[in-house]
Amino acid sequence: MALACAAAIGLLGLQGHLVEIEADVGDGLPTFTMVGLPDASVREARDRMRAAVVNSQLRWPQRRMTVNLTPATLPKHGSAFDLALAIAVLAANGDLPPPARDGPVFLGELGLDGAVRPVLGVLPAVLAAQAAGRDRVIVPAGNLAEAALVPAMSVSGVTRLADLVAHLRGEPDRLVTASAVVEPLPVPGADLRDVVGQAGGRRALEVAAAGGHHLYLHGPPGAGKTMLAERLPGILPLLPDEEALEVTAIHSVAGALPPGAPMLRRPPYESPHHTASAAAIVGGGSGLARPGAISRAHRGVLFLDEAPEFASGVLDALRQPLESGQITLHRAAGRTAYPAAFQLILAANPCPCASPSGDQACVCTSWMRRRYLSRLSGPLLDRVDLHVTLLPVTRQALLATEPAESSATVASRVRAARTAARERLAETGQTRNADIPGAALRRRWRPARSAMSGVESALDRGLLSARGMDRVLRVAWTLADLAGVTVPGPLEVDEAMGLRLRGLAA
Ligand SMILES: Nc1ncnc2c1ncn2[C@@H]1O[C@H](COP(=O)(O)OP(=O)(O)OP(=O)(O)O)[C@@H](O)[C@H]1O
Ligand SMILES: [Mg+2]
Ligand SMILES: [Zn+2]
User: Fold this and answer.
1) Residues 412-415: contacts with CB within 8 Å, 24+ apart?
2) Is 196 in the pocket of ligand 1 (CB under 6 A)?
3) Does the C-beta of 197 come closer than 6 Å to ligand 1?
4) Total domains present in the chain
Protein backbone atom coordinates (compact mmCIF):
# COMPACT_ATOMS: atom_id res chain seq x y z
CA MET A 1 0.00 0.00 0.00
CA ALA A 2 1.56 3.30 -1.01
CA LEU A 3 -1.39 5.58 -0.39
CA ALA A 4 -3.60 5.77 2.71
CA CYS A 5 -6.01 8.19 4.23
CA ALA A 6 -7.11 9.01 7.79
CA ALA A 7 -9.63 11.58 9.01
CA ALA A 8 -9.16 14.30 11.62
CA ILE A 9 -10.97 17.51 12.57
CA GLY A 10 -9.61 21.04 12.18
CA LEU A 11 -11.12 23.71 14.41
CA LEU A 12 -11.65 27.34 13.52
CA GLY A 13 -13.02 28.87 16.67
CA LEU A 14 -15.83 26.55 17.72
CA GLN A 15 -16.41 25.44 14.16
CA GLY A 16 -14.94 22.06 13.28
CA HIS A 17 -14.21 20.81 9.76
CA LEU A 18 -13.41 17.32 8.60
CA VAL A 19 -9.81 17.12 7.40
CA GLU A 20 -8.74 14.16 5.29
CA ILE A 21 -5.07 13.31 5.66
CA GLU A 22 -3.59 11.49 2.69
CA ALA A 23 -0.15 9.95 2.97
CA ASP A 24 1.87 8.69 0.04
CA VAL A 25 4.97 6.60 0.72
CA GLY A 26 7.18 5.85 -2.27
CA ASP A 27 10.68 4.88 -3.20
CA GLY A 28 13.37 7.51 -3.23
CA LEU A 29 15.53 9.41 -0.83
CA PRO A 30 13.97 9.60 2.66
CA THR A 31 12.09 12.90 2.76
CA PHE A 32 8.94 14.18 4.42
CA THR A 33 6.81 16.82 2.74
CA MET A 34 3.61 18.20 4.22
CA VAL A 35 1.19 20.26 2.09
CA GLY A 36 -2.29 21.66 2.66
CA LEU A 37 -1.84 24.83 4.75
CA PRO A 38 -0.32 23.39 7.93
CA ASP A 39 0.98 26.02 10.35
CA ALA A 40 4.25 25.67 12.26
CA SER A 41 2.63 23.68 15.06
CA VAL A 42 1.25 21.12 12.58
CA ARG A 43 4.57 20.87 10.74
CA GLU A 44 6.28 20.00 14.01
CA ALA A 45 4.16 16.84 13.99
CA ARG A 46 6.80 15.17 11.82
CA ASP A 47 9.35 15.14 14.61
CA ARG A 48 6.86 14.08 17.29
CA MET A 49 5.55 11.32 15.02
CA ARG A 50 8.95 9.92 14.17
CA ALA A 51 9.99 9.69 17.82
CA ALA A 52 6.59 8.30 18.85
CA VAL A 53 6.65 5.65 16.12
CA VAL A 54 10.20 4.54 16.93
CA ASN A 55 9.50 4.50 20.67
CA SER A 56 6.39 2.40 20.03
CA GLN A 57 8.66 -0.32 18.54
CA LEU A 58 7.35 0.43 15.04
CA ARG A 59 9.26 1.27 11.87
CA TRP A 60 9.52 4.86 10.71
CA PRO A 61 9.57 4.61 6.91
CA GLN A 62 12.99 5.49 5.44
CA ARG A 63 11.28 6.48 2.20
CA ARG A 64 9.93 9.45 0.32
CA MET A 65 6.77 10.57 2.11
CA THR A 66 4.21 13.16 1.09
CA VAL A 67 1.33 14.12 3.34
CA ASN A 68 -1.58 16.19 2.11
CA LEU A 69 -4.18 17.78 4.38
CA THR A 70 -7.44 18.50 2.58
CA PRO A 71 -9.32 20.75 2.11
CA ALA A 72 -6.15 22.71 1.36
CA THR A 73 -7.90 26.06 1.82
CA LEU A 74 -8.65 25.47 5.50
CA PRO A 75 -5.86 26.70 7.81
CA LYS A 76 -4.69 23.91 10.15
CA HIS A 77 -3.37 24.63 13.62
CA GLY A 78 -2.24 22.66 16.61
CA SER A 79 -1.18 19.20 17.56
CA ALA A 80 -4.49 17.33 17.36
CA PHE A 81 -3.66 16.08 13.84
CA ASP A 82 -0.70 14.01 15.13
CA LEU A 83 -2.66 10.80 15.55
CA ALA A 84 -4.34 10.84 12.15
CA LEU A 85 -1.03 11.77 10.51
CA ALA A 86 0.75 8.83 12.14
CA ILE A 87 -2.01 6.40 11.18
CA ALA A 88 -2.03 7.60 7.56
CA VAL A 89 1.77 7.29 7.28
CA LEU A 90 1.94 3.85 8.90
CA ALA A 91 -0.94 2.57 6.75
CA ALA A 92 0.65 3.95 3.58
CA ASN A 93 3.85 2.15 4.53
CA GLY A 94 1.97 -1.13 4.80
CA ASP A 95 2.27 -1.44 8.59
CA LEU A 96 -1.48 -1.26 9.12
CA PRO A 97 -4.61 -2.11 7.20
CA PRO A 98 -5.67 1.27 5.75
CA PRO A 99 -8.67 2.86 7.50
CA ALA A 100 -11.88 2.80 5.47
CA ARG A 101 -12.88 5.99 3.63
CA ASP A 102 -15.70 6.64 6.09
CA GLY A 103 -13.74 5.13 8.98
CA PRO A 104 -13.03 6.60 12.39
CA VAL A 105 -11.91 10.17 13.01
CA PHE A 106 -8.63 10.34 14.93
CA LEU A 107 -7.80 13.14 17.37
CA GLY A 108 -4.75 13.41 19.60
CA GLU A 109 -1.27 14.72 20.17
CA LEU A 110 1.69 12.35 20.27
CA GLY A 111 4.35 12.47 22.94
CA LEU A 112 7.88 11.51 21.94
CA ASP A 113 7.52 8.32 24.00
CA GLY A 114 4.48 7.20 22.00
CA ALA A 115 1.87 8.38 24.51
CA VAL A 116 -1.33 9.92 23.17
CA ARG A 117 -1.89 13.23 24.91
CA PRO A 118 -5.13 15.14 25.48
CA VAL A 119 -5.87 18.09 23.21
CA LEU A 120 -8.13 21.15 23.45
CA GLY A 121 -11.48 21.38 21.75
CA VAL A 122 -12.39 17.67 21.67
CA LEU A 123 -16.09 18.31 22.29
CA PRO A 124 -16.61 20.69 19.32
CA ALA A 125 -14.41 18.39 17.22
CA VAL A 126 -16.58 15.35 17.98
CA LEU A 127 -19.71 17.39 17.27
CA ALA A 128 -18.19 18.36 13.91
CA ALA A 129 -17.32 14.73 13.13
CA GLN A 130 -20.94 13.84 13.75
CA ALA A 131 -22.15 16.71 11.57
CA ALA A 132 -19.84 15.42 8.81
CA GLY A 133 -21.63 12.09 8.91
CA ARG A 134 -19.02 10.09 10.83
CA ASP A 135 -20.15 7.87 13.68
CA ARG A 136 -16.87 6.83 15.27
CA VAL A 137 -14.03 8.82 16.86
CA ILE A 138 -10.85 7.77 18.59
CA VAL A 139 -9.61 10.34 21.09
CA PRO A 140 -6.93 10.55 23.78
CA ALA A 141 -8.10 8.61 26.84
CA GLY A 142 -7.76 11.85 28.81
CA ASN A 143 -10.48 13.40 26.63
CA LEU A 144 -12.80 10.40 26.63
CA ALA A 145 -15.31 11.74 29.16
CA GLU A 146 -15.61 14.94 27.17
CA ALA A 147 -16.02 13.14 23.83
CA ALA A 148 -18.67 10.90 25.35
CA LEU A 149 -20.89 13.92 26.01
CA VAL A 150 -21.96 13.77 22.35
CA PRO A 151 -24.96 11.48 22.09
CA ALA A 152 -25.14 8.72 19.45
CA MET A 153 -21.40 8.68 18.71
CA SER A 154 -19.15 5.68 19.16
CA VAL A 155 -16.12 7.02 21.05
CA SER A 156 -13.00 5.17 22.21
CA GLY A 157 -9.99 6.41 24.11
CA VAL A 158 -6.38 5.56 23.47
CA THR A 159 -3.41 6.03 25.78
CA ARG A 160 -0.54 4.88 23.53
CA LEU A 161 0.08 4.86 19.80
CA ALA A 162 1.11 1.19 20.04
CA ASP A 163 -2.35 0.32 21.40
CA LEU A 164 -4.08 2.05 18.51
CA VAL A 165 -1.86 0.28 15.99
CA ALA A 166 -2.59 -3.06 17.66
CA HIS A 167 -6.31 -2.27 17.61
CA LEU A 168 -6.23 -1.42 13.91
CA ARG A 169 -4.37 -4.68 13.27
CA GLY A 170 -7.31 -6.48 14.81
CA GLU A 171 -6.21 -7.10 18.40
CA PRO A 172 -9.15 -6.81 20.78
CA ASP A 173 -9.39 -4.71 23.94
CA ARG A 174 -6.62 -2.26 23.23
CA LEU A 175 -8.81 0.84 23.48
CA VAL A 176 -10.62 2.37 26.43
CA THR A 177 -14.38 2.66 26.16
CA ALA A 178 -16.41 5.30 27.95
CA SER A 179 -18.12 4.02 31.02
CA ALA A 180 -21.55 5.48 31.57
CA VAL A 181 -20.78 8.71 33.36
CA VAL A 182 -23.22 9.52 36.10
CA GLU A 183 -23.47 13.25 35.89
CA PRO A 184 -22.97 14.74 39.32
CA LEU A 185 -25.49 17.33 40.45
CA PRO A 186 -24.02 20.80 40.01
CA VAL A 187 -22.26 21.78 43.21
CA PRO A 188 -24.12 24.59 44.90
CA GLY A 189 -22.04 27.76 44.94
CA ALA A 190 -22.12 30.50 47.54
CA ASP A 191 -25.62 31.03 48.97
CA LEU A 192 -27.62 34.24 49.30
CA ARG A 193 -28.40 33.21 52.88
CA ASP A 194 -24.96 34.58 53.81
CA VAL A 195 -25.72 38.10 52.61
CA VAL A 196 -26.90 40.28 55.49
CA GLY A 197 -29.22 43.23 54.82
CA GLN A 198 -28.81 44.86 51.41
CA ALA A 199 -32.47 44.44 50.51
CA GLY A 200 -32.03 46.73 47.51
CA GLY A 201 -29.03 44.82 46.22
CA ARG A 202 -30.75 41.47 46.69
CA ARG A 203 -33.85 42.68 44.88
CA ALA A 204 -31.76 43.98 41.97
CA LEU A 205 -29.93 40.66 41.75
CA GLU A 206 -33.22 38.76 41.59
CA VAL A 207 -34.54 41.10 38.90
CA ALA A 208 -31.28 40.73 36.94
CA ALA A 209 -31.60 36.95 37.10
CA ALA A 210 -35.28 36.92 36.14
CA GLY A 211 -34.95 39.19 33.10
CA GLY A 212 -31.33 38.70 32.03
CA HIS A 213 -30.56 42.35 32.75
CA HIS A 214 -27.08 43.76 33.23
CA LEU A 215 -26.36 45.18 36.68
CA TYR A 216 -24.17 47.95 38.08
CA LEU A 217 -23.40 47.79 41.80
CA HIS A 218 -22.03 50.95 43.28
CA GLY A 219 -21.00 51.45 46.90
CA PRO A 220 -18.28 51.57 49.53
CA PRO A 221 -15.82 48.73 50.11
CA GLY A 222 -17.11 45.89 52.23
CA ALA A 223 -20.78 46.54 51.49
CA GLY A 224 -21.11 43.17 49.78
CA LYS A 225 -20.82 43.95 46.07
CA THR A 226 -18.57 40.99 45.35
CA MET A 227 -20.67 38.74 47.60
CA LEU A 228 -23.82 39.59 45.67
CA ALA A 229 -22.24 39.18 42.23
CA GLU A 230 -20.86 35.74 43.10
CA ARG A 231 -24.36 34.60 43.99
CA LEU A 232 -25.99 35.40 40.64
CA PRO A 233 -25.17 32.07 38.92
CA GLY A 234 -26.77 30.27 41.87
CA ILE A 235 -30.16 31.83 41.23
CA LEU A 236 -30.09 31.52 37.43
CA PRO A 237 -31.87 28.53 35.86
CA LEU A 238 -29.61 25.60 34.90
CA LEU A 239 -28.69 25.53 31.22
CA PRO A 240 -30.86 23.42 28.90
CA ASP A 241 -29.01 20.61 27.04
CA GLU A 242 -28.23 22.50 23.88
CA GLU A 243 -26.84 25.53 25.73
CA ALA A 244 -24.89 23.34 28.14
CA LEU A 245 -23.23 21.61 25.19
CA GLU A 246 -22.35 24.97 23.64
CA VAL A 247 -20.91 26.37 26.89
CA THR A 248 -18.95 23.17 27.53
CA ALA A 249 -17.55 23.33 23.98
CA ILE A 250 -16.27 26.87 24.57
CA HIS A 251 -14.61 25.83 27.81
CA SER A 252 -13.11 22.85 25.99
CA VAL A 253 -11.48 25.09 23.37
CA ALA A 254 -10.34 27.45 26.13
CA GLY A 255 -8.75 24.58 28.05
CA ALA A 256 -10.94 25.47 31.01
CA LEU A 257 -12.93 22.25 31.49
CA PRO A 258 -12.71 20.69 34.92
CA PRO A 259 -11.13 17.22 34.94
CA GLY A 260 -13.55 14.41 34.20
CA ALA A 261 -15.37 16.92 32.00
CA PRO A 262 -18.98 16.60 33.02
CA MET A 263 -21.30 18.86 31.09
CA LEU A 264 -21.35 22.43 32.43
CA ARG A 265 -24.95 22.83 33.57
CA ARG A 266 -24.60 25.83 35.82
CA PRO A 267 -24.30 29.17 34.01
CA PRO A 268 -20.60 30.02 34.09
CA TYR A 269 -19.18 32.83 36.21
CA GLU A 270 -16.07 34.70 35.16
CA SER A 271 -14.47 37.47 37.17
CA PRO A 272 -11.29 38.58 35.42
CA HIS A 273 -8.97 40.79 37.43
CA HIS A 274 -8.69 44.41 36.27
CA THR A 275 -5.01 43.90 35.45
CA ALA A 276 -5.82 41.07 33.00
CA SER A 277 -4.77 41.75 29.41
CA ALA A 278 -7.29 42.53 26.69
CA ALA A 279 -6.48 39.15 25.11
CA ALA A 280 -7.29 37.36 28.38
CA ILE A 281 -10.61 39.15 28.62
CA VAL A 282 -11.94 39.37 25.06
CA GLY A 283 -9.89 36.51 23.58
CA GLY A 284 -6.83 36.26 21.41
CA GLY A 285 -3.32 34.94 21.57
CA SER A 286 -0.91 33.99 18.83
CA GLY A 287 -1.95 31.77 15.95
CA LEU A 288 -5.49 30.58 16.47
CA ALA A 289 -7.30 33.02 18.76
CA ARG A 290 -8.48 31.41 21.98
CA PRO A 291 -11.70 32.40 23.75
CA GLY A 292 -11.31 34.95 26.54
CA ALA A 293 -13.25 35.51 29.76
CA ILE A 294 -16.20 37.08 27.90
CA SER A 295 -16.69 33.89 25.87
CA ARG A 296 -16.14 31.62 28.84
CA ALA A 297 -18.94 33.68 30.44
CA HIS A 298 -21.26 32.93 27.48
CA ARG A 299 -24.77 32.21 28.81
CA GLY A 300 -23.48 33.06 32.26
CA VAL A 301 -22.12 35.98 34.21
CA LEU A 302 -19.18 38.30 33.53
CA PHE A 303 -18.29 40.20 36.71
CA LEU A 304 -15.98 43.19 36.45
CA ASP A 305 -15.06 44.01 40.02
CA GLU A 306 -13.53 47.47 40.53
CA ALA A 307 -14.75 48.18 37.00
CA PRO A 308 -13.23 51.70 36.67
CA GLU A 309 -9.78 50.14 37.10
CA PHE A 310 -10.06 48.18 33.84
CA ALA A 311 -8.17 49.58 30.85
CA SER A 312 -10.50 51.77 28.80
CA GLY A 313 -9.68 49.70 25.71
CA VAL A 314 -10.99 46.60 27.44
CA LEU A 315 -14.21 48.31 28.53
CA ASP A 316 -14.77 49.65 25.01
CA ALA A 317 -14.18 46.19 23.57
CA LEU A 318 -17.20 44.94 25.52
CA ARG A 319 -19.58 47.03 23.47
CA GLN A 320 -19.60 44.81 20.38
CA PRO A 321 -20.37 41.60 22.28
CA LEU A 322 -22.98 43.39 24.40
CA GLU A 323 -24.81 44.31 21.18
CA SER A 324 -24.30 41.15 19.15
CA GLY A 325 -23.68 38.39 21.69
CA GLN A 326 -20.45 37.40 20.00
CA ILE A 327 -16.89 38.57 19.50
CA THR A 328 -14.89 38.51 16.30
CA LEU A 329 -11.13 38.30 16.71
CA HIS A 330 -8.80 39.21 13.89
CA ARG A 331 -5.44 37.50 13.76
CA ALA A 332 -2.77 37.07 11.12
CA ALA A 333 -3.81 33.42 10.92
CA GLY A 334 -7.41 34.39 10.20
CA ARG A 335 -10.63 35.59 11.73
CA THR A 336 -12.33 33.72 14.53
CA ALA A 337 -15.73 34.36 16.07
CA TYR A 338 -16.77 33.11 19.48
CA PRO A 339 -20.14 33.41 21.21
CA ALA A 340 -20.10 35.97 24.04
CA ALA A 341 -23.66 36.52 25.24
CA PHE A 342 -22.96 37.18 28.89
CA GLN A 343 -24.80 38.94 31.64
CA LEU A 344 -22.62 41.80 32.85
CA ILE A 345 -22.20 42.86 36.45
CA LEU A 346 -20.08 45.93 37.08
CA ALA A 347 -18.98 46.91 40.57
CA ALA A 348 -17.40 50.19 41.55
CA ASN A 349 -16.40 52.03 44.69
CA PRO A 350 -17.48 55.65 44.82
CA CYS A 351 -13.90 56.86 44.65
CA PRO A 352 -10.32 55.69 44.06
CA CYS A 353 -9.29 55.83 47.75
CA ALA A 354 -11.97 53.26 48.59
CA SER A 355 -12.33 54.23 52.22
CA PRO A 356 -14.47 51.62 53.95
CA SER A 357 -16.48 53.92 56.17
CA GLY A 358 -17.91 55.86 53.30
CA ASP A 359 -17.45 59.58 53.21
CA GLN A 360 -15.79 60.45 56.52
CA ALA A 361 -12.35 59.03 55.82
CA CYS A 362 -12.36 59.80 52.11
CA VAL A 363 -9.52 61.99 50.94
CA CYS A 364 -10.70 62.33 47.34
CA THR A 365 -11.79 65.61 45.82
CA SER A 366 -15.10 65.70 44.02
CA TRP A 367 -13.14 66.09 40.79
CA MET A 368 -11.24 62.85 41.51
CA ARG A 369 -14.48 61.04 42.25
CA ARG A 370 -16.11 62.20 39.09
CA ARG A 371 -13.09 61.34 36.98
CA TYR A 372 -12.90 57.88 38.56
CA LEU A 373 -16.47 56.92 37.79
CA SER A 374 -16.38 58.56 34.37
CA ARG A 375 -13.95 55.85 33.31
CA LEU A 376 -17.04 53.72 32.95
CA SER A 377 -18.04 55.27 29.68
CA GLY A 378 -21.57 56.45 28.99
CA PRO A 379 -22.13 53.96 26.15
CA LEU A 380 -21.20 51.07 28.43
CA LEU A 381 -23.28 52.14 31.44
CA ASP A 382 -26.12 53.00 29.10
CA ARG A 383 -26.44 49.30 28.25
CA VAL A 384 -26.87 48.40 31.91
CA ASP A 385 -30.52 48.23 32.95
CA LEU A 386 -30.09 48.13 36.72
CA HIS A 387 -28.06 50.63 38.71
CA VAL A 388 -27.92 50.09 42.44
CA THR A 389 -26.15 51.98 45.19
CA LEU A 390 -25.33 49.85 48.23
CA LEU A 391 -24.82 51.44 51.63
CA PRO A 392 -22.59 49.92 54.31
CA VAL A 393 -24.32 47.12 56.20
CA THR A 394 -25.93 48.50 59.34
CA ARG A 395 -25.14 47.19 62.80
CA GLN A 396 -28.77 46.15 63.31
CA ALA A 397 -28.71 44.11 60.13
CA LEU A 398 -25.45 42.40 61.11
CA LEU A 399 -26.83 41.52 64.54
CA ALA A 400 -30.24 40.36 63.28
CA THR A 401 -30.98 36.73 64.09
CA GLU A 402 -33.57 36.20 61.36
CA PRO A 403 -31.84 34.21 58.61
CA ALA A 404 -31.88 35.77 55.16
CA GLU A 405 -33.62 34.12 52.22
CA SER A 406 -31.69 31.28 50.55
CA SER A 407 -30.62 31.10 46.93
CA ALA A 408 -32.98 28.16 46.38
CA THR A 409 -36.02 30.25 47.37
CA VAL A 410 -35.01 33.13 45.14
CA ALA A 411 -34.15 30.74 42.28
CA SER A 412 -37.67 29.29 42.33
CA ARG A 413 -39.19 32.77 41.88
CA VAL A 414 -36.70 33.46 39.10
CA ARG A 415 -37.71 30.23 37.34
CA ALA A 416 -41.39 31.12 37.51
CA ALA A 417 -40.73 34.62 36.12
CA ARG A 418 -38.60 33.22 33.30
CA THR A 419 -41.37 30.80 32.36
CA ALA A 420 -43.90 33.63 32.20
CA ALA A 421 -41.56 35.69 30.01
CA ARG A 422 -40.75 32.78 27.71
CA GLU A 423 -44.42 32.05 27.13
CA ARG A 424 -45.25 35.68 26.42
CA LEU A 425 -42.26 36.13 24.09
CA ALA A 426 -42.67 32.79 22.29
CA GLU A 427 -43.63 34.42 18.98
CA THR A 428 -40.50 36.64 18.95
CA GLY A 429 -37.94 33.89 19.36
CA GLN A 430 -36.59 35.65 22.46
CA THR A 431 -36.81 34.16 25.91
CA ARG A 432 -35.74 36.96 28.24
CA ASN A 433 -37.13 40.45 28.74
CA ALA A 434 -33.65 41.97 28.37
CA ASP A 435 -33.66 40.80 24.73
CA ILE A 436 -36.99 42.31 23.61
CA PRO A 437 -36.22 44.63 20.67
CA GLY A 438 -36.97 48.30 21.34
CA ALA A 439 -39.54 48.61 18.55
CA ALA A 440 -41.49 45.59 19.76
CA LEU A 441 -41.41 47.03 23.24
CA ARG A 442 -43.06 50.25 22.14
CA ARG A 443 -45.65 48.65 19.84
CA ARG A 444 -46.48 45.20 21.10
CA TRP A 445 -45.61 45.40 24.79
CA ARG A 446 -46.59 48.83 25.89
CA PRO A 447 -47.83 49.19 29.45
CA ALA A 448 -51.12 51.03 29.98
CA ARG A 449 -50.97 54.83 29.61
CA SER A 450 -51.87 55.18 33.28
CA ALA A 451 -48.71 53.31 34.28
CA MET A 452 -46.48 55.65 32.30
CA SER A 453 -46.92 59.00 34.03
CA GLY A 454 -43.66 58.69 36.00
CA VAL A 455 -41.71 57.77 32.86
CA GLU A 456 -43.29 60.64 30.96
CA SER A 457 -42.28 63.22 33.51
CA ALA A 458 -38.73 61.77 33.66
CA LEU A 459 -38.55 62.08 29.87
CA ASP A 460 -39.79 65.67 30.10
CA ARG A 461 -37.19 66.54 32.73
CA GLY A 462 -34.40 64.94 30.67
CA LEU A 463 -33.67 62.33 33.34
CA LEU A 464 -34.38 59.57 30.88
CA SER A 465 -33.35 59.15 27.23
CA ALA A 466 -35.38 57.24 24.64
CA ARG A 467 -33.05 54.29 25.01
CA GLY A 468 -33.25 54.63 28.77
CA MET A 469 -37.03 54.38 28.52
CA ASP A 470 -36.78 51.12 26.59
CA ARG A 471 -34.60 49.74 29.33
CA VAL A 472 -37.02 50.84 32.02
CA LEU A 473 -39.87 49.11 30.20
CA ARG A 474 -37.93 45.85 29.86
CA VAL A 475 -37.25 45.84 33.59
CA ALA A 476 -40.89 46.71 34.28
CA TRP A 477 -41.91 43.54 32.41
CA THR A 478 -39.51 41.52 34.52
CA LEU A 479 -41.00 43.02 37.68
CA ALA A 480 -44.46 42.11 36.39
CA ASP A 481 -43.30 38.53 35.74
CA LEU A 482 -41.89 38.32 39.26
CA ALA A 483 -45.10 39.72 40.72
CA GLY A 484 -47.24 37.36 38.66
CA VAL A 485 -49.19 40.12 36.93
CA THR A 486 -49.87 40.05 33.19
CA VAL A 487 -48.90 43.62 32.40
CA PRO A 488 -46.75 46.18 34.26
CA GLY A 489 -48.73 48.71 36.28
CA PRO A 490 -47.54 52.01 37.80
CA LEU A 491 -45.90 50.08 40.65
CA GLU A 492 -43.70 48.07 38.31
CA VAL A 493 -42.87 50.96 35.99
CA ASP A 494 -41.91 53.22 38.88
CA GLU A 495 -39.76 50.58 40.55
CA ALA A 496 -38.05 49.90 37.21
CA MET A 497 -37.32 53.59 36.85
CA GLY A 498 -35.91 53.68 40.36
CA LEU A 499 -33.66 50.73 39.55
CA ARG A 500 -32.28 52.60 36.58
CA LEU A 501 -31.97 56.10 37.99
CA ARG A 502 -31.03 55.62 41.64
CA GLY A 503 -27.42 54.71 40.93
CA LEU A 504 -27.09 57.35 38.22
CA ALA A 505 -28.09 60.10 40.60
CA ALA A 506 -25.58 58.93 43.20
N1 LIG B 1 -24.08 42.32 53.31
C2 LIG B 1 -23.14 41.55 53.89
N3 LIG B 1 -23.49 40.46 54.57
C4 LIG B 1 -22.56 39.67 55.15
N5 LIG B 1 -21.24 39.90 55.08
C6 LIG B 1 -20.82 40.98 54.42
C7 LIG B 1 -21.74 41.85 53.78
N8 LIG B 1 -21.04 42.81 53.18
C9 LIG B 1 -19.76 42.56 53.43
N10 LIG B 1 -19.61 41.45 54.17
C11 LIG B 1 -18.33 40.88 54.62
O12 LIG B 1 -17.31 41.70 54.10
C13 LIG B 1 -16.50 40.98 53.19
C14 LIG B 1 -16.25 41.82 51.96
O15 LIG B 1 -17.44 41.88 51.20
P16 LIG B 1 -17.39 42.13 49.66
O17 LIG B 1 -16.08 41.72 49.13
O18 LIG B 1 -18.57 41.54 49.04
O19 LIG B 1 -17.49 43.71 49.65
P20 LIG B 1 -17.30 44.66 48.42
O21 LIG B 1 -18.45 45.60 48.45
O22 LIG B 1 -17.11 43.87 47.21
O23 LIG B 1 -16.00 45.45 48.81
P24 LIG B 1 -14.78 45.94 47.89
O25 LIG B 1 -15.23 47.21 47.27
O26 LIG B 1 -13.68 46.16 48.87
O27 LIG B 1 -14.51 44.88 46.92
C28 LIG B 1 -17.24 39.71 52.88
O29 LIG B 1 -16.37 38.63 52.66
C30 LIG B 1 -18.09 39.50 54.11
O31 LIG B 1 -17.36 38.79 55.07
MG1 LIG C 1 -15.37 43.46 46.12
ZN1 LIG D 1 -12.08 58.63 48.37
Assistant:
1) 413/206, 413/210, 413/482, 414/206, 414/209, 414/210, 414/235, 414/236, 414/237, 415/237
2) yes
3) yes
4) 2
